[in-house]
Amino acid sequence: MEIGLYFGSFNPVHIGHLAIANYILEYSKLEQIWFVVSPQNPFKDKKSLLKDYHRVELLHRAIGENNAFRVSDIELKLPQPSYTIDTLAYLHEKYPTHLFSILMGSDNIASFHKWKNYEQIIAYHDLFIYPRADYKGSNFDTNPKVHFIKAPQIEISSSFIRQAIKEGKNLPFYMPTEAYNYLQEMNFYKK
Known about the structure:
The structure is a single chain. The protein has one domain: HUPs (Rossmann fold, 3-Layer(aba) Sandwich), CATH 3.40.50. Helices cover 36% and strands 16% of the residues. The chain has 8 helices and 6 strands. The protein has helices at residues 15-26, 52-63, 74-77, 84-94, 106-109, 118-124, 158-166, 177-185; strands spanning 2-8, 32-37, 69-72, 99-105, 127-130, 146-148. Helix 2 (52-63) runs antiparallel to helix 8 (177-185).
């Protein structure tokens, strides 16, 4: 089975995440998309990061019964800091018949050369790149393992949703209904 790994903090998951995953699933060879919940990113503000289990729960509620999508908390269980190469090694060991690819925004491909063992990643895994504003290109643009997906650009961010909720705004259409209801029920991001 060909699996696309969509890494992120998903703090919170929103319709943009799901729209991108859906588009890539329909316009690529991938058979499933796994949303891999990442631990704390050292470059992001920890104060606004929901606890791991809440982010996992939001994703479960967001994807519901969709069998093409799956939530993975594997990175939350592996030693920290979390490196993609280590996650891939673990997944290969656990699922030896699956082929894993990585989904990432074009902003990430520009800094891909800074990832731990990036040469090994790109040697054995396809990268599916979705567009982000102001992308200027990278050294990987002509690599046969890099596939640019012409998905519509979606200008919704988790940080926008968090700030809007903090300001008392009501944005139920920016997130899947069940995830938004859980977020409201738990009073997330209101402080």
